[in-house]
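Usage

Read records sequentially. Each one opens with the input sequence:
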Amino acid sequence: MSSASKPELKVAETWDTCIENTIRKLAYGTLGGGLAAMILFRAPSARAAVAGIGAGIGIGMGYTDCKHEFDVIQKEQER
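and closes with the structure output:
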């Protein structure tokens, strides 16, 4: 294996990890928001809004983690 393909494999592996983590955090955020909405609110629109906020928080957490992982890779390649 050439040395040029190793960083490419690291980036591909990081993408796979990021997508998996973001989907997982989206699901957890939606489920957590939906559960909280079922307990706290009676109106369907309020429940949907809280579940949507939970989904947004989950996606945001996934994005932030991915950005951090790619920043680490970029710093390693600059050395």
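Summary fields computed downstream for this record:
- The radius of gyration is 18 Å.
- The chain is about 90% helix and 0% strand.
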